[in-house]
Structures are given as C-alpha cells and as structure tokens.
Amino acid sequence: MLSQNTEVTHGRTKKETVVIQRRIILVLLTLLTITTFIVVGKIAFDISREKQAEDIVILAKNEANKILAEAENDASIVVYTTTKNANQQAESITESAETKADTITKTAETKAETITKTAEAKANKIVDNAIDTQIDEIETLLAITEAEASNQSVKGKAAVAATIKNRIDSDQFKADSIKEVVYSPGQFDPVSSGKINNVVATASTVEGVKLCLQGKDYSNGALYFYNPTISRGSNGRWFNTLETTAVIGDHVFKK
Questions:
Q1: What structural domains does the chain harbor?
Q2: How many whole angstroms separate alpha carbon 209 and alpha carbon 214?
Q3: What's the farthest any 2 CA atoms get from each other in the chain?
Q4: Average pLDDT for residues 194-207, to the nearest whole number?
Q5: CA atoms of 159 and 165, how far apart (whole Å)
Q6: What mean pLDDT is predicted for residues 72-91?
Q7: In a 3-state reduction of DSSP, which class is residue 194?
Q8: For residue 167, which of 128, 147, 173, 218 is within the disulfide window of CB 3.0 to 4.6 Å?
Q9: How many CB atoms lie within 10 A of CB 64?
Q10: pTM, full prediction
Q11: Could you give the C-alpha distances from 53 to 44, 47, 57, 244, in angstroms and in order?
Q12: How far, in Å, are 24, 50, 80, 181, 209 from residue 162 at the CA level?
C-alpha cells in the first residue's frame, strides 16, 4: 500500500528514478574522466615522443657537425701538408732546373767561346793567307812588269800589267792567278831566262801596276804585247794576224 504522497512512474517511485539517474550520471562522469585521462595520456605520450624525436635530431645534428668539423680540420691539415710538400718539391725542382740551366749555359758559353776562338783563328789564318797571296801576286806582277817594260812610261807599264791581268778572265788561258799566268811555260822571256828573279821594281813600275790594279786598262783588253823591233820572223808574223788594241811606247798590244 502506498502513501498518498508517493508518485509512481512506470512502475517505479520517483525516488528510485532519481537514484538511477544519479547512477547513470556518475557512470557517465566516470567514463568522461577515463576518456579525459586517455586523451591527456595520449597527448602527453605524443609530446614525449616528439620531444624525444627533437632531442634525437639535435643530437644527430650535433654529432654530424662534430664529424664535419673534424673532417674539415683533417682536410685542412692534408691540404696544408700537401701544399707544403708540393711547394718544397717545386722549390727543389726549380733549384735543380736552375742548376742544370746554369750548367748548360756555362757549357754552351764555353763551347761558343771555343768555337769563336777557333773561327777567329781560322779567319785570321785565311786573312793572313789571303794577304800573303795578294802580296805574292802583286810582287809577281811588279817583277814581270819591271822585267818586260823597265824602260817604258808609266802608262806603258800599266798596259803591260793589264795585259797579264786580262789573261785571268780570258777563256784562252787556263790560269786563275797572276802567278799562274806569268809562270805558264813559254809565255814570257824574263821567266825563261830567270831575269824576273833579279829585278827590283822602280817607283814608275809601282805606279803603273797601281793604276792597273785600280782598274785602268790602257791596253784596251789586250791579251798579248810585243816589241816589233825585237820580235821578227814567224813570231812577228803571228802577231800580225791578231787585232791591235793599242800602241804605247815600244810595245804593240794585241788580242
């Protein structure tokens, strides 16, 4: 039997309903608290993991920087050592090259000096020989001119000397020097008689020969000369077959 003040709801009293509701609310609050702890725990776990990851990254970076610094330091040492060694080797090579160059230069200078001295000696010898040859040639020309034309004028002596000189350039005579012309067999009587060896050139003979050597040719290209009062007979007749180029003093010049 219920009292008059008691209300019935779906077969339960109001008091029972309130108790049930409170229990439900308590269960819900408990679930909410548990969920909150789970979420907070997860967040904390995630934060912890991120922190650990950041710490690991920082440690990795620090280790990498340390390794990089050590590598750079080692590289600098290697570069410095290599550069130093290279410089030393370069200096050594340079000094060696300079020494070799100095040696080669000195050797070349010595050889050049030797060659120069040898060349100078040869040149001096050639010059001396040439001078001696020229002197010998001139003395021969003076002697034959004096022997053939001692009583002739300066112009006549110059013409005799020119005739001898012209034979060097002529194809009719195989002679390359005054001496070869003068001493060709049977060409000049003073050579055959030996008179050429006993004459002394006078001043007028020297002057006449000088004119010849300076290019004066008063014989006009003659290759022969003779004295008509001395050369007679067949010899005189042969001269008459030649062209007369000049007549100076006692001599007639022919070619």
A1: 133-254 (1.10.10.2520)
A2: 9
A3: 215
A4: 96
A5: 10
A6: 69
A7: coil
A8: 173
A9: 10
A10: 0.53
A11: 14, 10, 6, 135
A12: 165, 128, 90, 12, 8
